[in-house]
Design brief:
Length: 128
């Protein structure tokens, strides 16, 4: 079992920045691919970013590429999402997820069904 707890969300103006945190406890954190997803009201949960077990590779959704950065610190059992140049369209509940699959194309890591554990989410609201 892995427990995931997100934090760092809040209200920010367009163009601003936020850093999200996901703290993990339970089984070996470094055994998992870690990802961030988001879900806006009335929309399906969508992939944001993913990082390999030891942080050697990443994938990003096209909508956040160049603005968001995912990273992890396995010594602290934490994954981060640095969000810059935020837009109102980034408003959503952000979830971190742990899974065991990775692929070069990014199609597998973008699939919500490939993840075993989820956090409870943290709200990000970007005002215009």
């Amino acid at each position: 079992q892995v427990q995931l707890v997100e934090s760092g969300g809040g209200l920010v103006q367009a163009g601003g920045s936020l850093r999200l945190f996901c703290a993990a406890s339970g089984r070996a954190f470094s055994s998992y691919v870690m990802s961030w997803f988001r879900q806006a009201p009335g929309k399906e949960r969508e992939f944001v970013a993913a990082i390999t077990w030891v942080g050697t590779a990443t994938h990003y959704a096209d909508s956040v590429k160049g603005r968001f950065t995912i990273s992890r610190d396995n010594a602290k059992n934490t994954v981060y999402l640095q969000m810059n140049s935020l837009k109102p369209d980034d408003t959503a509940v952000y979830y971190c997820a742990a899974g065991t699959s990775w692929d070069i194309s990014g199609k597998v890591v973008a699939d919500v069904e490939k993840y075993d554990y989820w956090g409870q989410g943290t709200q990000v609201t970007v005002s215009s």
